Amino acid sequence: MTDLMRPEAEIAATQPVEEPERLATSVIWLYCLPTMGIGVTGLLFSMYLMKYSTDVLLIAPATMGVIFGVSRFWDAVSDPMVGYMSDLTRSSMGRRRVWMLASALPVGIGIFGLWSPPESLGPVAIVVWMVVALLLYETASTAFFVPHGALGVELTPNYHERTRLFGYRHLLTAFGLIAGLGVFQWVSSAEDIRTAAFWMSIICGGGVAGLIFYSSLRLRERPDYQGRGGTAFKATFTDVVRNPHARVLLFVYGIETFGVASIAMLVPYVTEYGFGAKEITVPLIASYFVPQFALTPMWIALSRRFGKKPLWLGAMIVTMLAFAGFFFLPERVTVWLFLLAGLLGFAGGCGAVVAPSINADIVDWDEMQTGERKEGAYLALWNFVRKAAGGLTA
Question: Could you report the per-residue pLDDT of 335-353, keeping only the tens digit for each?
Fold first, then answer.
């Protein structure tokens, strides 16, 4: 039996016999609010920042690739540090929300900086600006994403409620992504793209900062988890790396995330320069997103019926077949292009729902082995894999 299939029974055995009450809908909404806002800017970041930088800011593609690479090296340092320190944090707000609150303003400033470099900057100065802006944004987003993801693990110990929580986070993020598609269409088709990007960065940067701030103040944490992080930095991440279930999950998650990031980054180039049909960019992306999010309740229900990992394995087989289908498409726009994109979205929705829930269960398995609650450390590596996959596509 593979490592991927083994832990479900072991982890389920660590759950209490009497399941805790369902998470209140209000708690789910409060938890998901920031990710709805980041859905807007995240879609623009993954889909359009590279093209905006090369086509509008006139930065060489190779240079932008190096800039993204530098940010990934920084992530290799900042992600583990934030995860480890978050696990050990003690405050009246808990060990997660204080980090989220502190990240709100820097995230907003980073969004503004990425999309609004001064037009007076020369070729070298604008590269320096983008390096600084990207490092600020990535550092601030790490200070939000890692504690926020760890808080999601802590909100409920219930095996199935975790799938429900992360499933509805995925579903509610759709509102942000749909809005992001509209913002992308507005900015990319504007007569003056830099002016449109400037106003977008002010509105979206301020909106995201406000949502993080509000969520951080309203959510509550479990006080009994404070002070239960790893005792030493090296030992903490050694435990994570030695966890066989974590290794398999992070490897599989990295491959799947790389595929999703490739789609988001390459679609604007392929539609405009490959098919010569820039106007199909938004409909094509929509054909991917709609089934991915609309079928979230189905994946939540099926995970209860068939189990998280078997369900995800089946979805990955469908993803593999859909990617293979693109090799047989003609060099013109046909309905098959949209159908295959929809099939990718359908299958991709499963991983987005069950993978973070499995990660939460693996944290419980680690606690059973070590007696420590290292959500921050596990989410740090999760966040790094997510961003590294996006960086590789650049």
Answer: 988 999 999 999 999 999 9
Q: Are 362 and 308 in contact (CB under 8 A)?
A: no
How many angstroms separate the Cα of 264 from the Cα of each of 128, 207, 340, 393? 25, 23, 15, 10
pLDDT of 22-31, one tens digit each?
Answer: 889 999 999 9
User: 340 — alpha (psi -120 to 50), left (phi > 0) or beta?
Assistant: alpha
Q: How far apart (Å, rounded) are the C-alpha atoms in residues 195 and 207?
A: 18
Two tokens at 103?
Answer: 């990240």
- Comparing 383 with 10, which gets the higher pLDDT? 383
155-164, 256-265, 375-384: which has the minimum mean pLDDT? 256-265
The kind and range of the H/E element at 149 are helix 123-155
Cβ-Cβ contacts under 8 Å for 106 (sequence gap 6 or more): 136, 139, 140, 143
Question: Which one-letter amino acid corresponds to residue 200?
Answer: M
Structure-token match 């693109």, residue found: 326
What does the alpha-carbon distance between residue 354 and residue 164 come to, in Å, rounded to a whole number?
Answer: 9
Torsion of CA 138, 285, 259, 41, to 10 degrees: 10
Could you tell me the residue ranges of all domains in the chain? 7-16+24-393
Q: What is the CATH number of domain 7-16+24-393?
A: 1.20.1250.20
Tokens 């999010």 label which residue? 293
Angle of helix 159-188 versus helix 296-306 axis, rounded to 10: 150
pTM of the prediction?
0.83
